Amino acid sequence: MIESENKQELLDKRYMRMAYIWSENSYCKRRKVGALLVKDKMIISDGYNGTPSGFENICEDEDNKTKPYVLHAEANAITKVACSNNSSKDATLYVTSSPCIECAKLIIQAGINRVVYADAYRLSDGVDLLRRAGIELVNVELNG
Ligand SMILES: [Zn+2]
């Protein structure tokens, strides 16, 4: 039992490292976030924060504020799977920052049953909502 728990923790950390690498795709300057959707040991979707398809690859306005139409990494991963033949039902979401409340709503409705996150976002209302929905939450810390 202990052995399988360690194995899951090891996998969680590996996927999280991949999510971090994926966050490097983000052209947002203020904050780069990466997300992966994993189901049956397969990556079925991915995302990073950025503007919608077809828009300029600039996240910040002249005042260095994030544009209102920038999608979060989780929202991009979930909407990407919606465009595919895959289903996010019972999938695990790996995200480098804890989800905000808007993404938490999408995560619940997408049928995702496990969320693994690294950096805790300053507001905990998203994580609180996921907990209320009965979604398994795992906080992993990557040390180097
Ligand atoms: Zn969000």
From TrEMBL:
GO cellular component, one term: cytoplasm
Residues that hold Zn(2+) according to the record: H72, C100, C103
Cofactor(s) listed in the protein's UniProt record: Zn(2+)
Keyword annotations of the record: Hydrolase, Metal-binding, Zinc
GO biological process: pyrimidine nucleotide metabolic process
GO MF: dCMP deaminase activity; zinc ion binding
UniProt superkingdom: Bacteria
Annotated protein name in UniProt: CMP/dCMP deaminase zinc-binding protein
Organism of derivation: Fermentimonas caenicola
